[in-house]
Write a structure and sequence with these properties.
The complex is a heterodimer. By secondary structure, chain A is an all-alpha fold. Chain A contains 15 helices and two strands. Chain A is globular. The chains are: A mainly alpha, B mainly alpha.
């Protein structure tokens, strides 16, 4: 087809004319390209998002249970009730501890993969992070239900090592303990950490790949101990990656309602509150107001992250 | 500091981290063969292949699997078209609102899934749209676009613009250039993005709980079983099969984008 066009430039059909028009007017081409995705995301996604946000300014009539379609900030006021503040605080604390733990456990994996792994090992490390990242979320949660169950592998391990007393002592602690690991905060924390860990490793690794080894050698040559090199050279350079990873771990923990429902105590997190208010309670305005909380938290978080240069490491 | 020998402590920490990420999934494989059907007892009292047959004969599992496959296929197709268009526009030119568009694409997965889900649900309610196969697809396609977009935009940036100009100079029109020059260049990136989008849709549960009516995708079926276990061994077998099925597209995407800068899934 290209040949015919080259040999006979004279006869030109409507297709060619359209093609010429698009080539000469690049703006039109870009507009045509961008229109379908922009419409889809703009109308379906942003439209729904605004529909939701608008509802947070309505309130619910406590007697009839019907939605009162008048502008009010009362629903937002309800967020500041002690019980609701507890939910928000609890969720943010959980998200923060999961993020910190993920950074601590993920850093060595990312560092080894970025600096020491070569060839076959590099591929192995890469797949070793990608496979858990992409494998089924529910299966991952399920596997921890198996692990943390009272009759499961973890209890068996403690028993085999004659350490059951240790596990029981831990479970009798306030806050982190509980009847068994699968109904404790520790359990919820472990599952969150497990499920989001790969999201932390990849950006850290991307940041570390860009650190020239010569810089670390220079630091050593100038007399820094490995600990000092880590603190004053490596960590500042890896920080944008850590912040980028923390965006994922933090945001994903803030909005999740399935993990705390399957493994954890009866105390709710933000996601569960949203789910219940819109579902069984039928209080859409309060659910919407609750949904704004993670958006606001993430907005502040992203703003800070941007100023720390985290987006270059994404 | 030696440049090519890792300290022992780092090796142990890295190995421990990798083990932590993989052992729980491997555990599922053992549980699929257990003879115990009332609890999650470890070690399993015995091993059997019985539950594979039982699962095979369960129509609800097959229906859920079929629905999930259909939803993932259609959502992937839509995401492929929208993601490629968007990547082509963003990668090649600078235009007003370009930053906004790239933010808009990422937003559905940057915001917690529950927000996407509940927004769509309230929009369906407002518009009196009944839940159906298509409401599920609508949600899935929305967050799958970003995966295709990420892969395609990286490839577009590496594809030299002079190739396109050469093609046009040689007399090809814009459509021929797309068909014979651009498409072969971006094909593997699209395939990789499509596979990941498929895996993402196949596995999605949070948004789906809000956009599905009575229909059950496979993840919804699993969620039911997790909250109210009916037959644990069947859940074990399904979990194992899901792990195996999702590994294939991920490995495929990896081999397709290997050696290029656009490593699939890495949000780089």
């Amino acid at each position: 087809m290209a040949e015919t066009a080259a040999h006979h430039p004279a006869p030109r059909g409507p297709v060619d004319r359209l093609s010429d028009l698009l080539w000469r007017r690049q703006g039109l081409l870009v507009l045509l390209l961008i229109l379908p995705p922009a419409l889809w995301l703009g109308v379906i996604y942003l439209g729904s998002l605004f529909a939701l946000l608008a509802q947070s300014f309505f309130s619910i009539d406590e007697f009839s249970g019907l939605i009162n379609y008048e502008f009010t900030l009362r629903t937002y006021g309800e967020l500041f009730r002690a019980a609701n503040l507890d939910i928000i605080l609890r969720t943010v604390l959980m998200a923060a501890s999961v993020t910190i733990a993920a950074a601590v456990i993920g850093f060595p994996v990312a560092y080894y993969a970025a600096r020491y792994a070569r060839g076959r090992w590099k591929a192995l490390f890469y797949l070793g992070v990608m496979l858990p990242l992409w494998s089924s979320y529910l299966v991952k949660v399920y596997s921890w239900k198996l692990i943390l169950a009272k009759e499961g592998i973890l209890s068996w391990l403690f028993e085999t090592l004659h350490l059951t007393w240790l596990l029981e002592a831990y479970l009798s602690l306030p806050v982190v303990g509980g009847n068994s690991l699968s109904v404790s905060w520790t359990g919820t924390f472990l599952v969150f950490l497990y499920v989001w860990l790969p999201f932390m490793i990849l950006p850290i690794q991307a940041a570390l790949e860009r650190v020239p080894p010569s810089m670390l050698e220079a630091s050593g040559d100038l007399g820094a101990r490995p600990g000092q090199t880590f603190r004053h050279v490596l960590l500042p350079l890896a920080l944008p990656g850590i912040v980028a990873g923390s965006i994922f771990t933090f945001s994903l923990t803030l909005g999740d309602y399935i993990i705390p429902q399957i493994v954890g105590t009866s105390a709710r997190m933000i996601g569960q509150a949203v789910y219940q208010f819109q579902g069984t309670a039928g209080n859409i305005p309060l659910a919407a107001a609750f949904a704004v909380v993670p958006i606001v938290i993430m907005g502040v978080y992203l703003y800070v992250a941007r100023r720390m240069g985290a987006f270059d490491a994404l | 500091m030696h440049s090519d020998r890792a300290p022992l402590g780092l090796k142990i920490a890295a190995a421990a981290g990798l083990l932590f990420m993989h052992l729980p999934i491997l555990l599922i494989f053992v549980y699929a063969f257990t003879t115990e059907d009332k609890s999650y007892q470890w070690p399993p009292p015995g091993y059997t292949l019985k539950w594979f047959g039982v699962t095979w004969a369960r129509p609800d599992v097959w229906e859920a699997l079929s629905l999930s496959l259909r939803v993932a296929a259609i959502s992937t197709l839509i995401a492929l078209v929208l993601g490629t268009l968007c990547a082509a526009a963003v990668a090649r030119t600078r235009f007003f609102g370009r930053e906004t568009i790239s933010l808009l694409v990422i937003l559905p997965i940057a915001l917690p899934g529950i927000i996407t889900g509940i927004s769509l649900r309230s929009a369906f309610n407002l518009g009196d749209i009944p839940f159906s196969f298509w409401t599920i697809v609508l949600g899935h396609a929305t967050f799958c676009v970003v995966v295709v977009y990420n892969n395609a935009v990286a490839r577009f940036r590496r594809t030299s613009g002079s190739l396109v100009e050469a093609s046009m100079d040689l007399g090809a029109n814009a459509f021929q250039t797309f068909r014979f020059v651009i498409l072969p260049n971006i094909a593997t990136a699209l395939l990789a993005g499509g596979m990941l989008a498929f895996a993402l849709s196949f596995d999605e549960v949070i948004v789906t709980t809000f956009t599905a009516g009575q229909q059950q995708t496979l993840p919804i079926w699993m969620l039911e079983e997790l909250v109210r276990p009916r037959q644990r061994p069947v859940t074990n077998v399904v979990a194992m099969v899901v792990v195996l099925v999702t590994f294939l597209p991920i490995l495929g995407a990896y081999y397709l984008t290997r050696g290029t800068e656009s490593v699939a899934g890495q949000g780089k």
